[in-house]
Amino acid sequence: MKRTALISGHWWLFFAALPSACAGIDAGGREPVLTLPPVPGEARESGFPEQSSPVSQAPLQVPALAEASPQKAGAAPFPGMTELSVDALVEQVLARNPTLAQMTAAWQAASARYPQVTSLEDPMFGLTTGPASIGSKDVDFANRVEATQKLPFFGKLKLRGQAALAEAAAASNEVGDMRLQLIESAKMAFYDYYLVDRAIAVNEESLKLLREFRKTADDRFRANQTPQQDLLQADVEIGRQRKRGLALERMRKVTQARINTLMHLPPDTPLPPPPKAIQLAESLPAASELRARAVAQRPDLQALSSRIDAERASLGLANKEYYPDFEIMGAYDAFWQRPEQDLRPMLGVRMNVPLYRERRRGAVAEAQARLDQRIAELAALTDQVNLQVQEAYEQVLESEKSVRLYNETILPAARENVKAARTAYAAGSIPFLSLIEAQRNLVELRDSSYEELAEYYRRIATLERVIGGPSPPQ
Question: What domains appear along the chain, each with residue ranges and CATH number?
Answer without folding.
Answer: 2-467 (1.20.1600.10)
